[in-house]
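Form 7-S
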Amino acid sequence: MSEDAQNFSIARIYTKDVSLESPKAPQIFEKQWNPKLGLDVDISHTVLSETMYEVVLKLSVTVKTDDEVAFMVEIQQAGAFVVQGFEEKTVEHILGSMCPNILFPYARETIDALAVKATFPAPMLAPINFDALLEQRRQKQSAQAQASQETH
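Output:
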């Protein structure tokens, strides 16, 4: 395929699932606010058609104060992306790093808005290095493949 046929574009960005829990409310509001933030990140993608992919960025945020959960937010921020005319390794980078970078600000804004609506300060998540996460996943898969070969 010629370079002219390469296409990367956003078809749609949407929130697929979102939840907020504040299990200790209203008692938690009487406590001194000393937040400790925990963040879990997961990225997945699904092939929708020959040129269309859905990428889902899953973030789980847990904010504790004095070892008690103040609130938890889980979000699946998703997007449908057109990815056409790229080599496999480039497609992997687009789906594993570029798309999550596009989705992250939407997820962060939703998380902050939900926290504020629950009368907590916005967590204001720091940027995530999706290139580093992608490389970690590659190394883990490579190590698993190597371990699997050694046991057979």
